[in-house]
Automatic annotation (TrEMBL):
<dbReference type="Pfam" id="PF07002">
    <property type="entry name" value="Copine"/>
</dbReference>
<feature type="transmembrane region" description="Helical">
    <location>
        <begin position="60"/>
        <end position="77"/>
    </location>
</feature>
<dbReference type="InterPro" id="IPR010734">
    <property type="entry name" value="Copine_C"/>
</dbReference>
<dbReference type="InterPro" id="IPR000008">
    <property type="entry name" value="C2_dom"/>
</dbReference>
<dbReference type="GO" id="GO:0005886">
    <property type="term" value="C:plasma membrane"/>
</dbReference>
<comment type="similarity">
    <text>Belongs to the copine family.</text>
</comment>
<feature type="domain" description="C2">
    <location>
        <begin position="15"/>
        <end position="156"/>
    </location>
</feature>
<dbReference type="InterPro" id="IPR036465">
    <property type="entry name" value="vWFA_dom_sf"/>
</dbReference>
<feature type="transmembrane region" description="Helical">
    <location>
        <begin position="31"/>
        <end position="53"/>
    </location>
</feature>
<dbReference type="GO" id="GO:0046872">
    <property type="term" value="F:metal ion binding"/>
</dbReference>
<dbReference type="GO" id="GO:0005544">
    <property type="term" value="F:calcium-dependent phospholipid binding"/>
</dbReference>
<dbReference type="GO" id="GO:0071277">
    <property type="term" value="P:cellular response to calcium ion"/>
</dbReference>
<keyword id="KW-0472">Membrane</keyword>
<dbReference type="InterPro" id="IPR037768">
    <property type="entry name" value="C2B_Copine"/>
</dbReference>
<feature type="compositionally biased region" description="Low complexity">
    <location>
        <begin position="537"/>
        <end position="548"/>
    </location>
</feature>
<keyword id="KW-0106">Calcium</keyword>
<keyword id="KW-0677">Repeat</keyword>
Length: 555
């Protein structure tokens, strides 16, 4: 239970942990190229060349294997696989260690299915299907995190009759450190490794792990044909270098670059972020330790500075002085039209997903105006005012539970089933439903009442589960009961955003689609209850309330 000490309005603490995944592969398949000549209309196989050559001092022939790993995540509702991201492409090795990480939100209570596909990139096309498939692996994010040392190694599969090699994952929870370090290094008197030249040196940075292993975190550029390289300044997040632990060991390897990927090891040294932060001094001249040869090689830190990373507000609830946020736009677009059918213009407005003052108690249905006895707001402008004020007093929090708000409105609708009132619940959310089973049951129950539900999804989240609630194709069911009517209309707001930034046009498009089904849903309820239109009554007795639900989950 939250306490007063950790209650902090406007500080979103969504129960998700940022996890950084590092990926490596071992013993990948060689890809063979075939040279074929046509002689007298007959094919003659002349030469077979593997895409990867074993380590050799010969530089006269090299064929490239360009490896990339693609991560796919599975949607909760449709089970569709969607590309999440790609590593960088590493050439000329069957054992790549990728520097580019995957950063994912880990939800302990959810099963997060992942798929990793490995490809040999052999064209310039960004269409991954155009490249050579080397293998794949399925797992959950929880499996990686729950493995010993948060390190998981699995066999790649997907090519019948072939061993595809292994894929290795290392997971680490990211700290909240937002600092960025910029540094420059040089080296002196490196070993000569190339037969016809000097060396082509580059540096590889690793951070240490608790089990004694190391995770790659940066590679410098290659400086050609020199024993005294000066590398360009580079920038690296401090949490990538040490994840906020300033005394964590940082290992730096020095290599001579080779075209065929069999880079020659020159030496290594260890340091830490705290040592780097001393800047250029005698403490940051490192003697490079070699495996066999004797001699003094040094790497020197030329410069070091650290800055805080400043970012634009990423919350979809962010209140810009120049334009409405996505929540306000959706609310205004739909509300201003539907309020014309509400005679008293009084709207009960609820939030769901927040810690409430004064003690930080978590609530999944609370009045935006903080008045539990009378949650009504005057007009859409009143709802907007209550929404903005609520953002200043509550702490946004997950998970995203829909059922409490639906049930709250359903209780109101249960009291008026004579056709004199019809309820429209507008829910605006930027999160994936956490209580799908309970929400389905709430929708099935609500389908027998005079109410409709409009769900507007804002932001980039996956809304597959929402489509399941929108019963256009298949009616929602729960515990063997099928909803007697389709009462849910879902739309993702991003589909209606005008590319030219015209908010008025975006809002008009949204309102047109989300309200299109309401008349048919209202008439459908009245017909099934044999309720016929009655003569107009005085204003006080013809009120149609339109509750509004706003999901205050912040991502």
């Amino acid at each position: 239970m939250a306490t007063i000490g950790d209650f902090d309005p406007l500080n979103s603490t969504v129960p998700a942990t940022k996890i950084e995944l590092t990926v490596s592969c071992r013993n990948l398949n060689k890809i063979f190229w075939y040279l074929v000549f046509i002689i007298n209309n007959k094919a003659l196989l002349i030469l077979i060349l593997p895409c990867f050559l074993p380590p050799t001092r010969s530089r006269s022939l090299s064929i490239s294997l360009f490896t990339v790993v693609v991560l796919y995540v599975q949607g909760i509702g449709t089970k569709e696989w969607r590309e999440f991201g790609r590593t960088e492409v590493i050439d000329n090795t069957l054992n790549p260690d990728f520097v580019r990480k995957f950063v994912l939100d880990f939800f302990f209570e959810e099963k997060q299915n992942l798929r990793f596909d490995v490809y040999n990139v052999d064209t310039r096309s960004s269409n991954i299907s155009k490249h050579d498939f080397l293998g794949q692996m399925f797992c959950t994010l929880g499996e990686i995190i729950g493995s010993t040392g948060s390190r998981l190694e699995r066999t790649l599969s997907g090519i019948p009759g072939k061993k595809c090699g292994n894929i290795i994952f290392t997971a680490e929870e990211l700290s909240n450190c937002r600092d960025i370090a910029t540094m420059q290094l040089c080296a002196n008197k490196l070993d000569k490794k190339d037969f016809f030249g000097k060396s082509d040196p580059f540096l590889v940075f690793y951070r240490s792990n608790e089990d004694g292993t190391f995770t790659i975190c940066h590679k410098t550029e290659v400086i050609k044909n020199t024993l005294n390289p000066v590398w360009q300044p580079f920038t690296i997040p401090v949490r990538a270098l040490c994840n906020g632990d300033y005394d964590r060991t940082v290992k730096v390897d020095v290599y001579d670059w080779d075209r065929n990927g069999s880079h020659d090891f020159i030496g290594e040294f260890t340091t830490s972020y705290r040592e780097f932060s001393r800047g250029q001094s005698q403490f940051n001249v490192y003697e490079v330790k070699k495996r066999k040869e004797q001699g003094t090689l040094t790497v020197t830190l030329l410069s070091f500075k650290v800055e805080s990373e400043y970012t634009f507000p990423t919350s979809l609830h962010y209140m810009s002085p120049y334009q409405m946020n996505a929540y306000a736009m959706a609310l205004k677009a739909v509300g201003e039209i539907i309020q014309d059918y509400d005679s008293d213009k009084m709207f009960p407005a609820y939030g769901f997903g927040a810690k409430l003052p004064p003690d930080g108690k978590i609530s999944h249905v609370f009045p935006l105006n903080s008045n539990s006895e009378n949650p009504n707001c005057v007009g859409i402008e009143g709802v907007l005012e209550a929404y903005f004020q609520s953002l200043r007093t509550v702490q946004l929090y997950g998970p995203t539970n829909f059922a409490p708000v639906i049930n709250q409105v359903a209780r109101c609708a249960e009291d008026v089933t004579d056709g004199s009132q019809y309820f429209v619940l507008l829910m605006i959310t930027d999160g994936v439903i956490s209580d799908m089973v309970q929400t389905k049951e709430a929708v099935v129950n609500a389908a027998a009442l005079p109410m409709s539900i409009i769900i507007v999804g804002v932001g980039p989240a996956e809304f597959d589960a929402m489509e399941e609630l929108d019963g256009d194709e298949v009616r929602v069911s729960s515990k063997g009961r099928i909803a007697e009517r389709d009462i849910v209309q879902f739309v993702p707001f991003r589909d209606y955003i005008d590319r030219q930034g015209n908010q008025v046009l975006s809002m008009a498009r949204l309102a047109k689609d989300v309200l299109a089904e309401i008349p048919e849903q209202l008439l459908g309820f009245m017909k099934t209850r044999d309720i016929e239109p009655q003569p107009a009554l005085p204003t006080s007795s013809t009120t149609t309330t339109a509750p509004l639900g706003l999901n205050n989950l912040c991502i």
